[in-house]
Amino acid sequence: xxxxxxxxxxxxxxxxxxxxxxxxxxxxxxxxxxxxxxxxxxxxxxxxxxxxxxxxxxxxxxxxxxxxxxxxxxxxxxxxxxxxxxxxxxxxxxxxxxxxxxxxxxxxxxxxxxxxxxxxxxxxxxxxxxxxxxxxxxxxxxxxxxxxxxxxxxxxxxxxxxxxxxxxxxxxxxxxxxxxxxxxxxxxxxxxxxxxxxxxxxxxxxxxxxxxxxxxxxxxxxxxxxxxxxxxxxxxxxxxxxxxxxxxxxxxxxxxxxxxxxxxxxxxxxxxxxxxxxxxxxxxxxxxxxxxxxxxxxxxxxxxxxxxxxxxxxxxxxxxxxxxxxxxxxxxxxxxxxxxxxxxxxxxxxxxxxxxxxxxxxxxxxxxxxxxxxxxxxxxxxxxxxxxxxxxxxxxxxxxxxxxxxxxxxxxxxxxxxxxxxxxxxxxxxxxxxxxxxxxxxxxxxxxxxxxxxxxxxxxxxxxxxxxxxxxxxxxxxxxxxxxxx
Length: 486
Fold this sequence. Notes:
CATH superfamily of the largest domain: Spore Coat Polysaccharide Biosynthesis Protein SpsA, Chain A
CATH architecture of the largest domain: Alpha-Beta Complex
Structural class: alpha/beta
Strand order of the largest sheet: 20-21-22-29-24-27
Distance between the termini: 31 Å
Radius of gyration: 25 Å
Strand content: 25-35%
């Protein structure tokens, strides 16, 4: 399925995380790698650009199926050449993803070199990164499973560490791994730095397909079998490759560090100082951001008075901060986070609480993106909801009906083509129509500019799972409530 380009390195980018410690900006359906957190480009696009070019083969993406259309749009906005996109039915951590990639590349070349990278890290020193990959490739061609150890800039307690062993004679710049260690306390982390032999675990790896599969089959036989079955039962779908759901879900969920790297006899490390950051929390974003004279990192519509050393970000409403120190304040259209900078790692506990309470603030924003455009809930109450809907030129929603609600559509701008029962007609600016409860209907944009309209829903139940699809451009037809609106 994946094309192999011989004598080059095949980047495989993992884009399956949820980024819960960067809530409320990062949500399950719009995670941190798809956001422009540290510049004008999203984290994923910056990662693509890092490995785009003659030195690398076309890029392969492994991602959650829920993000497929968002990622496809971001790929289209990048100049990177893409080899393929592999869809996971659910997250099973990084070890199964690595095995899937190795199995697919091994079909074309068992010795294909794979550079496994997260999609949500920052690397500012690209020449240092490229040099490290060059050193690592020599070790990988000799059979090592190579990880990249980042020279620590501070005694971080939120990272795992790698202890450097003896040099590998056949691969200058690479070292055997003495041991992996979990996240240490502050005193231990300082001792690691003082020794000069410990490096942050970057979560990036380089290995040949055959070397990874050799150890995966021996160390994780159940995972290996599940991944092989997931490929055998997978299918091509609209340019994506969907892994077999039942087979992949049967795989144990483990990181490549725990499942393979900590157990293999072939672990190697290349030390690198490449201005790396995993952007794992709001504190890490404050660390790397440009700051004003008071130490504040400010983004969006923010007014600050007598405040210091804080991260202040608004994605919409005016954010005013007065007399605060060492805080993180992040405002979106539906949530506000206030946290001490030293407690940034605990934001994920808020996300866990939202999940326990059955709320959806951790799942999506008020504006929800779909392959055809987006919708945003702007008002709701008992038996009614008002949404702003935007449909991209040439796009259309599924042919559908609802059991419990009727809908009123008012076109604000653009032209709508409406299917309502056995009728089909056009609506122009300031025109409206009514979709009775239980009526089969479809909305599409036949024009060359975005279609903007207001939808007023009324009925006894207004949940997004009240939908029956009969026909869909995006492969979602044939069930009730299989996705959100459209």
